[in-house]
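Quick one: structure tokens for this chain, please?
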Amino acid sequence: MLKYTFLQPLGEGGISVLELVSLEDGRTAVLRKLRPLQFFKIGSQIMFRRGIRIRASLPQNDGIVASYSTGYAGLCPAELIEYVPGDNLRILHNKKSAVLRENIYTILRSAAKALAFVHSCGLQHLDVKPENFLLKSGGETHVKLTDFDLTLPAEETGRRKQSGTPAYMAPEQLYGKCSSQASDVFSFCVMCYYLISGHPPFVGSTQKSSLKRQASERVLATPLGDMVSNVPRQWEDAIMKGLEKRPEARIQNMVAWLKILGDETNI
């Protein structure tokens, strides 16, 4: 692993600790390491190491938080990754950010391209949510995708233990416990619906009832245009088609999803 100097703590994720560090070449980076309490949990070890390996294997892309180096921090597996000085889309939404509000479709298109790149590499991300899309501060509209601990090859579509963030999961993940790139499409469209309208597409009186509505084929989302005025027609079409409950009826990947917006440029 590259040599670094500790600068300050950045926070903790589900199984990771984040620290801001300085590299010998002058770059600022993030040291992301497995939380010590997770060290003896085999499942966490496997998941974290897989995420490190997948990020490091991805070709360089402006939409992905880059890997600089992998190795260990003490006994814990770790990675040095690109530092994006700014907030994730969840924080910006909660702050009622003017940048997010005024550039929502530009920002979401950038996010879509980042996820489409992951799909074009033959992967399914499986933790698509606003927290995993980072927007650099300073009024920029370019988004970077991070957190690959749950990512799997696209062909691994069988049943598995439920993992991820339930509020963004596709029905097949919530009940069938299987997944595909089409599951990422559903999650992305839940995120889009929420960030544009301020409301999740499937709402019940409790969290449990909301998830039941999200999983049920009989419950459809209210058309986005009924929730928010002036939604571009192509955006509403893409989002609502991405919220199809049956995976076979849904847009199959984010490359195809972008085509609905008329975007067929290189990912």
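The beta strands are 4-12, 16-23, 28-34, 67-73, 76-82, 86-88, 123-124, 133-136, 143-145, 152-153.
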